[in-house]
Amino acid sequence: MRCEKSDMVEEMLDAPVTGPSLWTAADFHGGDLMFELNDKDLKELDQALDGVKRRGLSLGEFGAEEFPLPGLQGKLAEVRHDVTAGKGFALIRGIRVDEYDIEDLEMIYWGIGAYLGTGLGQNANGDLLTHVTFHDLDPSNPNVRGYQDRRHQEPHNDLADMVGLLCVRKAKSGGASSIVNMTAVYNEFLKRRPDLLPIMYRGFHLDYRGEGADPKSTTPYTVPIFARQEGRLSCFYGRRGIDGAFEKRGQEPSIHEREALALIDELIMTPDFRLDMDLQPGDIQIVNNYSVLHARTAYEDYEDPSQWRLLLRLWLNTPAAKPPESIARFTRRGFEDVAQRG
């Protein structure tokens, strides 16, 4: 796969990136990570839930105006700022998941998300919330998504400005969540192999992973791993999508492309650049899709399917994100360009 120069390649950042998006795992302690919900916050959520149910509104049919949170909205504004203009992630703790059925929990989650951004469809079917749980699909199928099985997930991005995960049930063992600071990764990449940065800015074709009529479809354009806009660094990386595109296009990476990918794979596994989170039931993790990658360890479930690990995934877009067009045309496309192939 040749990464010929594209008209969407931005000027490279040739100096280390500084600012609030740069951190290491040692910078944080337990209390620094969380926005705790108190009894007043939870009461507001219950009242807002009752309101949308009385009006007969379903998931996706209401926003912040129909889901009023007069006290909690200030805390959620802090969350949004932390994610979009700060360290790139936030953890909300305290949803009492055992007090709701799954439908009500989804409504509350959607209502919280409405204060952070605009909810998106997550697949060709337009599902607004994805159940991250075991789906008992053929693991040898290259189009099986990572959220559908129990295997380890390498650090990657999703197709949105922000990604939310609400923990409903933990696994019997494993399933820890990790986030990787790509600002720190970039600085180390720049220090060690600046000669390979042009490859990272040009990027690679990506595998659509079966979303669309043609299971062999890939992006017709390359998506950069690193890009800049107005001096701001953004990233997008998923090795599985890159390798899948190489295979489906019947091509091989060059020697320098192999070196660049090997280095990025090494750096995203560096412990100092990674923050591990043991999400508890009722925790909501929100991440900036352009400044951090997220990952998950393999896990083992309980025998009872009703007790299997379950997280609810929410994709959100927000004007505050401002990703470069070279990345946004992939992450913000929804599934429009895939559907056009069907």
TrEMBL record:
Keywords: Antibiotic biosynthesis, Oxidoreductase. It comes from Hyphococcus luteus. It comes from the Bacteria. This is TauD/TfdA-like domain-containing protein. Signal peptide: none annotated. One of its GO terms (molecular function) is 2-oxoglutarate-dependent dioxygenase activity. Its cofactor is Fe(2+). The keyword Lipid biosynthesis does not apply. It holds the Pfam family TauD. GO terms for biological process: antibiotic biosynthetic process. Residues 59-315 form the TauD/TfdA-like domain. InterPro entries: AlphaKG_dependent_hydroxylases, TauD-like_sf, TauD/TfdA-like. SUPFAM superfamilies: Clavaminate synthase-like.
